[in-house]
Amino acid sequence: MIKIIVDAMGGDNAPAEIVKGAIDALPLRENFMVVLTGDESLIGRELAKYKYDASRVEIVHTSEVITNDDVPTLAVRRKRDSSLVVGLKMLKEREDVGGFVSAGSTGAVLTGGIMFVGRIKGVMRPALCPGIPNVRGTQTLLCDCGANAECKPQYLVQFGIMASAYAKAAYGVENPRVGLVTNGAEEHKGDPLHQEAHQLMKVCPAINFAGNIEGREIMYGDVDVAVTDGFSGNIALKAIEGCGKTVASVLSTEFRRSAGSKLSYLFAKKPINKLKNMLDYSKMGGSVFLGLKKVVVKSHGSSKAKSITPSVLQALDACRGNLIRDIEQRLESMPVSENEGE
Amino acid sequence: MIKIIVDAMGGDNAPAEIVKGAIDALPLRENFMVVLTGDESLIGRELAKYKYDASRVEIVHTSEVITNDDVPTLAVRRKRDSSLVVGLKMLKEREDVGGFVSAGSTGAVLTGGIMFVGRIKGVMRPALCPGIPNVRGTQTLLCDCGANAECKPQYLVQFGIMASAYAKAAYGVENPRVGLVTNGAEEHKGDPLHQEAHQLMKVCPAINFAGNIEGREIMYGDVDVAVTDGFSGNIALKAIEGCGKTVASVLSTEFRRSAGSKLSYLFAKKPINKLKNMLDYSKMGGSVFLGLKKVVVKSHGSSKAKSITPSVLQALDACRGNLIRDIEQRLESMPVSENEGE
Predict the structure, then answer these.
(1) Pick among B138, B246, B252, B300 to test the A interface (most A CBs inside 10 A)
(2) Given an 8 Å threshold on Cβ–Cβ distance, is A250 in contact with B274?
């Protein structure tokens, strides 16, 4: 039976919400189990609150926790008995483990993932890849959204390849359309990094390239994958997040303010909740950390149970969709040498 | 009487909407007039449709038009009798003219502005600076949002200085708070460009520096000015624009879909319109092109009259707020040499 490890101690709401989110995933898919890494007694106390199939849950005791106050590169080296490091090592070593989920320090997950799980052969830089809701009701993958603040053109090509593989594994998209996010649709737009990336992507057989797209198109759903450098991708992701929160806040205020407000809110509740739901990142799972030899999902630091559950399913679906093998195969057709980006 | 030139031939809806927008601005402020550059007979035909104070409108006939199909750098050199070039030259030469508004080709406005109006002494790169609506109901200035895809650290410092001057001239903000948009709040975040800009901004006496901010904070209103390089700033601006459009579209769809839809929309109309209004860039005027010797406002290419009117007022308010003199004075206190950025 395939196993998904969940870092029970990572994130602002650990372990209570993490444990609940993990076991809530069990009834939603068959033939898999979760492995919780962390303080055995704390995890046990949380588990005791719920009814669940105990044969599908394993606990691996660890004595340390990596927090956001730790320096990631030091923490993953020194806290060898942390829920994060133990989880990542198990992920690497055990054949029956397919994926790993953590809501812990992003830096530590990235550093630890590269150090303990390792990159797929040929991958220059692993990248974070969340799904952004779009106007069509599906998700657009944004890659990289923050793992690499500094990029080379070849990295961006690989982000497009890896995210294409993920679009297929996770959503079943056969020939994902890939756009390059720049400051204008025309081919010559952008800085030299993006101009060069554009030329490489155009001739890359592993990418169904749709050309440059602008920031507004990320949410229009015309492409399945939006490729960005980790710097501007992070800004785009958070700008959209901030806009969503602003909209929700303005709607609440305005409904309280307007005449006949309570009545009107009663009538408008359903459509507005639908909108809030659509913009609610917490329900969408986490960002897949693409390019490692096993599936790693980084859930938001403030994740509650309802965000952990989809992250677990995300990791499971990516394993079952043969994400890793697909990335390997697609990379073989990439027309740049392995060492160019190093 | 102060004069604002309006490029009557620039934009998708020229000249009809541009002419209407320009004369609609007249009753809203005293002691100013508009100068319309463009085809005299076309402008006359539009003006004939409305009642307005003819003593406050001047027409300057031009025979050429620069379109989006023109290559900007060539067009501003060759089409010397275009509404854009004639307008910019008048702006430069005539003392009684304080500002210029165009909804024409962005590239041509930027190139022409630098070529014919010229940079303020010490300005390395002029920058586009639109106002973004925020959750507090005010606007956050985003600078640069697209004039400079490639930047040096000193440019970013100047963007902060120039936008601070504009926050004071346009909104009366006495000591504008300036944030640097990066991929994380911590001081060390970002690529070398933003890391170095952070250090320069921290010690710049002409900036009230609030440190790094993330993309989501652009709409939270805690800073008055959000400094970005033109590449990521453009992506952030458009990501927010796309999110706003997506929200409006989802709300419309959901209200049509939900049971008792028409009734519920009747009740919810007011708050939702308030939201749409807030997110409606067209009503906010254009982007000021900061760093030139006179005030230039670039209005959106798809501007209708309701976007041209606020752009005209924006140009007028910036003149009356002594924007140019204020930028000159603030730049004098900048601790980098004029030539470093060249």
Answers:
(1) B246
(2) yes
Pick the residue from chain B with its C-alpha nearest to A232. B232
Q: Please name the member of B219, B247, B268 whose beta carbon is closest to the beta carbon of A267.
A: B268
Interatomic CA distance for residues B176 and B208, integer angstroms: 6
Give the gyration radius of chain A's Cα atoms: 20
DSSP for A219-239? Answer: GT-S-SEEE--HHHHHHHHHH
Cβ-based neighbour number of residue A49 at 10 Å = 11
**Residue B327 buriedness (CB in 10 A; 0-12 / 13-18 / 19+):** buried
Q: Do B278 and A250 touch (CB under 8 A)?
A: yes
Shortest Cα distance, chain B CAs vs residue A220, angstroms: 7
Among the partner-chain residues A235, A268, A270, the one whose CB lies closest to the CB of B215 is A235
All residues of chain B having their beta carbon less than 8 Å from the beta carbon of residue A146 are 183
Q: In this structure, how many other beta carbons lie within 10 angstroms of the beta carbon of residue B190?
A: 23
- Strand order across the beta sheet in which B139-143 lies: B131-133, B139-143, B225-227, B177-181, B208-213
In 10 A of CB A203, how many CB atoms?
10
What region does A28 belong to: left with phi over 0, alpha with psi -120 to 50, or beta?
Answer: alpha
The candidate with the shortest Cα–Cα distance to B30, out of B5, B58, B52, B2, is B2
3-state secondary structure of B205: coil
Put simply, the answer to whether B238 touches A257 (Cβ < 8 Å) is: no
The pLDDT mean for chain B works out to: 92
Cis peptide before A72 (omega within 30 of 0): no
Pairwise CB contact (< 8 Å): A264 & B270: yes
| Sequence-distant (≥ 6) Cβ neighbours of residue B67 within 8 angstroms | B104, B105
Residue B263 three-state SS:
helix
In the predicted model, what is the mean pLDDT of residues A214-234? Answer: 96
R_g of chain B, CA atoms, integer Å: 20
Do residue A271 and residue B263 have CB atoms under 8 angstroms apart?
Answer: no
Query: How much of chain B, in percent, has pLDDT values that exceed 70?
Result: 94
Identify all chain B residues contacting A216, using CB atoms and an 8 Å cutoff: 238-239, 241-242, 245
Bridge partners for A287 per DSSP:
A298
Query: Distance between CA atoms of A30 and A18, rounded to whole angstroms?
Result: 20
Minimal C-alpha gap between B324 and chain A (Å): 28
Instruction: Report angle CA A125, A318, A93 to the nearest 5 degrees.
Output: 70
Residues above pLDDT 90, as percent of chain A: 79
Q: Is A226 left (phi over 0), alpha (psi -120 to 50) or beta?
A: beta
- B67-115 pLDDT per residue, tens: 988 999 999 999 999 999 999 999 999 999 999 999 999 999 999 999 9
Distance CA B107, CA B67 (A): 10
Task: Determine the residue among A267, A276, A280 to mutate to test chain B binding: the one whose Cβ has the most chain B Cβ atoms within 10 Å.
Answer: A267
Single-letter residue type at A86: V
Beta strand spans in chain B (E): 2-7, 32-38, 57-61, 97-102, 127-129, 131-133, 139-143, 177-181, 208-213, 225-227, 287-290, 295-298
DSSP state of B115: I
CB B104 within 8 A of CB B76: no
